[in-house]
Amino acid sequence: MTLVAEADQRRIADAISEAERTTSGEIVAVIAPESATYYYVPFLWAALIALAVPWPFVFWTWWPIQHIYVLQLAVFAAFVALLMPSPIRLALVPRSVKHTRAHRRAVEQFMVQNLHTTVGHTGVLIFVSVAERFAEVIADRAIHEKVPETVWQAIVADLTEHIGKGQAGEGFVRAIKSAGEQLARHFPPEGRHDKGLSNHLIVLPPV
User: Fold this and answer.
1) Distance CA 87, CA 67 (A)
2) pLDDT at position 196, please?
3) CB of 183 within 8 A of CB of 155?
4) DSSP secondary structure string, 87-104?
5) What's the distance, Cα to Cα, between the start and end of the chain in Å?
6) What residue ranges do the domains of the chain occupy?
7) How many Å apart are CA 101 and CA 186, to the nearest integer?
8) Which tens digits make up the pLDDT trace of 40-91?
9) Options 2.40.30.270, 3.40.50.300, 3.10.310.50, 2.60.40.1120; CATH of 6-36+94-203
10) In sequence order, what E strands does 71-147 have?
C-alpha cells in the first residue's frame, strides 16, 4: 500500500504546477519508503545476546564447550531470523539514528533532483521518509535569507499531522501551497523561466 494514492499524486502534480506559476523558484516533492535498510541491527543484537549465552552453562553446568558453542551459534541464528522482519528491525533502531539517516537522504535528494542548480538558488524540497516517520523541508540558501526556519517547521508539522491522519495527499498539497506562497512573496516570476525540474511526486524505490 502506497502512502499517497494515484489520484492524490495527480493533485500534488497540479499543486506544484500552480505554485510554480507564481514564482521563479522551484518545488520538488519526494517520498522515500525508507532511508536505510538497517540490516546490521538484527546481527548486532543477536551477537550481543549470543555472547551472553555461554556464561550460565560454563559456571553452572558440565556441558562440553563444543555443545555450548553450538548452542551459541543456534541462538545467534535464531535471533537474527527473529529480529530481521522490517517492523521489528526498525523498532530496534534509535529514533535519533533513523532521523539522521533520513536527513542525510533528504540532502542527497536535494542534490540528486538538481535543486541546488536552480536560478537564484530558490529550490525547495519537500521530503518524507516513511519508515523513519520523518519529514523535512530543505530550502536553498537564497530562501533562508528571507524566510525564517519556523515557517518551514510549521509546514512540516502540518504535513506530518495530515500523514498521521491518513491524509498524506492533502498534507503534501497543503505543504506545496504554503511553500509556493513563501516563494511567490519573495521570488516572483521573472520573465519566461523554463522550469526543468519534475512537477510530479517522486516516489523512490526501496534502498
Assistant:
1) 33
2) 65
3) no
4) HHHHHTS-HHHHHHHHHH
5) 17
6) 6-36+94-203, 40-91
7) 31
8) 999 999 999 999 999 888 888 888 989 989 999 999 999 999 999 999 999 9
9) 3.10.310.50
10) 123-129, 134-139
Cα(166)–Cα(81) distance, integer angstroms: 31
Q: Is the dihedral of CA 58, 64, 65, 71 positive or negative?
A: negative
CA 124 to chain centre: 16
Residue 162 contacts by C-beta under 8 Å, 6 or more apart in sequence? Answer: 168, 170, 171, 174
CB 191 within 8 A of CB 120: no
Q: What is the pLDDT of residue 94?
A: 96
Q: Could you tell me the three cell numbers for 197? A: 525540474
C-alpha cell at 27: 518545488
Of 16-25, 168-177, 193-202, least confident by mean pLDDT is 193-202
